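Mods, move this if it's the wrong board.
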Amino acid sequence: MKGRQTKAAIVDAALGLASQIGLEGLSIGALAEVTGMSKSGVFAHFGSREELQISVIREYHDRFESEVFYPALSCPRGMPRLQSLFDNWMQRTSTEIDSGCIYISGAVEFDDRPGSVRDALASSVNTWQNALQRAVAQAQQENHLNAKADPLQVAFEIHGLILALHYEARFLRNPGAADRARLGFTAIVSRNQP
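Not the wrong board. Structure tokens:
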């Protein structure tokens, strides 16, 4: 039990660190310094830097699901659920403007580097993309969106809004980015009305 608590505390610290410096900057030594543990103590919980990075990705994904996906499941299928997914995602994004998004920074760091870290990142993002596509398809089934709309395309456009929000708000420090993302979502939905 104590070992699991210690590992959870290390992963929490690692997630905070990776949000600031990226997954690639994460090291056993830096994490030992932040947690006040020895390098061997941190290493004993993970066995490798790669396993540490993958643990951080898993923790990030779990938190993402608990803040964005699971609350939306309490909404009725169709547009209420899709709207909730988007609103929750926007809220999560707003809190990440200062710290950064592991999915986005990880994609930049590992896009051309095959291996288990990239695979873990891609799997997490694909899981989320599939959930978003399912929400779009459910909105079509409920006749809230046009049945001829391509769920993959609609999900792609919604995802694009979030990426643009990160770029505009985090990199360019544009204060109107969140409002434009919300307008973009409204436009996507309006364009795909039945």
